[in-house]
DNA sequence: CTGAAAGCGCTTACAG
DNA sequence: CTGAAAGCGCTTACAG
């Protein structure tokens, strides 16, 4: 039983009789022997690791339940495949680029997840150039050399606007996210299109950085504005919750005087007062699907893009009939 | 310029003249050459990676801003040291043990963080046995073979109780966390001791799993109980926020009819209505300190335990004078 | 179907 | 202070 034979048997390569393979596996198991990963990596240059770089302001990451759920979804598939997740949390675009370059130089990972897509996202070229296979988490705004895993935000936002208009609202505002991020643009665009489809004009559309602080100040600004909306659609739940706080501090009843819609469908949204009407996506399944796709890409060299079920409106008690004279 | 020489120069080993070392580094830099990590790992068995296994119910992880901040803190020190974080998110004790065993078998990491300490935590023995150096994040309840990095919860909880008693509260309840976790026990113990120190008896102490759902139901139970508290101290901010929701749904004014105290000092606590009195700790600094300690341990073989500044009470508007006839 | 050999790219004694 | 050699533990053609 030579080294080479064992290797062939362990790696399910042809050229080993089934009987021998079983014997090898049995002996390895009995001895508790496992091939050394560093040695294997040195000769095959496969690391059995996938990389995720998070670039976000800490204040935002900390309040946003997306990433923990997304990562948990990734793990559900990696664990079974003997893979591991290498995580990097960075605070700037420069640090993010350094992180990817280090991944490449150190051969840390077989592939990477690319989250929070941007317009003309130069990280796509960077990863291609570095030779790191990637999966795009979200819909890119142009042709891309990598497969994408998409969960469409638009239908949920559209449904939210129709829900509000059906309740009699005519003055609806949007507190959007960071316009540098494509998904924030998608939500904003879906909002604007849906409002227009009902023959209305948005009362206001405010960009933010997705933080609760900016969600709060945007809400305060809307309350102080010349034309005050009767409903606000927020680009994420944390901002909607901060908005709820501002409204209640100002004595504005929700939903009697103001309807509020969040986005994410977080646990938190179920426990506010009143519980939040929100648009639910499934970040855990998103993570799992992204991991499956990236795994396929790194092992077979190619993988098809995936379209997940779109985000859905979940109506709770933060939305109600428009106040004042309705027709 | 032989391979060996280059290696000595790159690794700052003695036996190379300063002039040659500089020349080697200059040439490496010009050629963009970096030593191959897998090869280096194979000969030195150092991976330059640190491991973190998260075992928590997803519902809790997602609502809890501790981990994102803690991990960001870790990253601030790892990045500069050319290290990387390997993350595993698991749902059960068995999966957690498997994760550590895989870390060891695959030589994935040089050391690991041990969070969410438990009574007689058998992971400590497991890691010792597997030969994985670790740092304990929190105060262990007994002698341990690893250094710990402690941020004491008690002073903040104690201050919260005194604050409430000073406001005239005599009926104070505690919605605790998961009693399997030492930090939940510490918070509970600090609560009970502080109440006793003021000559009072807790109106109630309820254990939970730290989830918003159980925070909400514990609050509902307290409202329905025979002796109703005038103040509730929660073991984390998410539960306090869920409690706020339940109280407001029930028409109980905060703080007029009920004072509420959270724990964590999250961003979220600043944006509720009313803003939450809470106990602030610094999870990011905690992560950074834990990373520094683990780095020292893995490189030098030993590291001293660290005691960080304790958690502090931050008074906001969810606490006020006790309702009814005060003396 | 099996065994002996080279190679992955470093580090580390060991001579010179 | 420098160069040649062995070794880390696998995988992979290449002969037998």
From TrEMBL, chains A, B:
Q: Which InterPro entries match?
A: HTH_LacI, LacI/GalR-like_sensor, Lambda_DNA-bd_dom_sf, Peripla_BP_I
Keyword terms, alphabetized: DNA-binding, Transcription, Transcription regulation
Q: Which residues form the HTH lacI-type domain?
A: 1-44
Which SMART domains does this UniProt record tie to the protein?
HTH_LACI
A single GO molecular function term of this UniProt record: DNA binding
**Entry keyword annotation includes Transcription regulation:** yes
Tell me what this protein is called. Answer: LacI family DNA-binding transcriptional regulator
Species in which this protein is naturally found = Microlunatus spumicola
